[in-house]
Amino acid sequence: MDALKRTPFYDLYSAYAESRCIDFGGWELPVQFTGIVKEHEAVRQQAGLFDVSHMGEFMVIGSGAEAFLQKMTTNDVSRLTDGAAQYTLLCYPNGGVVDDLLVYRLSEGRYMLVVNASNIDKDFQWLQEHLTSEFGEVTLTNVSDETLLLALQGPLAETILAEVTDAPISTLKPFHFIERATVCGVEVLISRTGYTGEDGFEIYAPLDVAATLWNGLLAAGSPHGLTPAGLGARDTLRFEAKLPLYGQELSADITPLEAGVQFFVKLDKADFIGRDALIQQKEAGLPRRLVGLEMIDRGIPRSHYPVYADGIKIGEVTTGTQSPTLKRNLGLALLDTAYSEIGTEVFVEIRGKQLKAVVIKAPFYKYKRLSVHIRTVNF
């Protein structure tokens, strides 16, 4: 059995007596430091610090880089300017999703892609297979093993980060970044992105500065209530904000249109892989949609629980939990379109019993300052 991979922050976890690590896709990662609900509430009210260094980073460089990414991704890369990023997806020819990711435009002909940890090898192979001579000069490099990533998230994230950087973060817009900035005395890339539904920043840097950044940020943030946060809180936070998780809300069998992220699919741009299938699905009408559910009967909907109406199975839960913010039993579910209207009563099968639920509006939580806040860090 292969040993679990560890991020450069692993040795720092032991400082927290209640920290607990799990095997997550071959990585030994903290599910919590002080408790999932405590960490969730800290991010909603103050700030949390996440180690997400297991994520993948690819560099795409060359005169043909933009054309290549236009062909591979659903969003319109040509709209990016230097210092801007966009959420996008890689699709199969049938419209199913290879992965969701971020594209950063560093400068003309220089891009960084940030992909999901569980899909690094698959994504890199997919991109390589389609990197043909038609695009001219393009170099694709996997720099995941030499890059760390921290996410500082929450309403006080800007206040905390301002104490350890001279970078102009107060004027940094969402989905923009500063390629070369100094944080805690080391050079990093700072982006105003996140996966929690809150304002926040992500910090990319070389592996050897891990302890400097972790300790420096926590020291600056401690008076403001900053706490380290693990995978558990990350999942409940992104769930409340209806941010998709690959393998649950998105997959090879679920298209971006069905998952409700059609805003990031530009069907009117130049051809991309999966475009024809997505146009056909849109014109024919979506067979199913991702909706919010609230339990009426007592029970918590969990991933893959079947959903019924009129005596037939109409879909299944993709993610569900008791919302730490709203204190209600909520779920996201992919349902037949005929049963997707708000107010529709359905039944979720929980431990062999069909319990009543109702379709409600999602996201369940929305940070007021940001109109569009979606991120690809799906662990």
Brief overview:
This protein has 379 residues and is α+β, with helices and mostly antiparallel strands. It has helices at residues 36-45, 65-72, 120-129, 157-162, 210-221, 231-240, 275-284, and strands at 20-24, 27-32, 47-51, 56-61, 84-91, 97-107, 110-115, 139-142, 147-153, 177-183, 186-191, 200-206, 226-229, 288-295, 306-309, 312-322, 329-336, 345-350, 353-360. A hairpin with a 2-residue loop joins strand 10 and strand 11.
Helix percentage? 10-25%
Kindly report the spatial arrangement of strands forming the biggest sheet: 10-11-12-9-3-13
Gross geometry:
globular
Largest sheet: 6 strands, mixed
Q: What is the C-alpha radius of gyration, as a whole number of Å?
A: 21 Å
C-alpha termini separation: 22 Å
The proportion of residues in beta strands is 25-35%
Topology order in helix (H) and strand (E) letters? EEHEEHEEEHEEHEEEHEHHEEEEEE
Helical run tally: 7
What structural class do the secondary elements suggest? alpha+beta
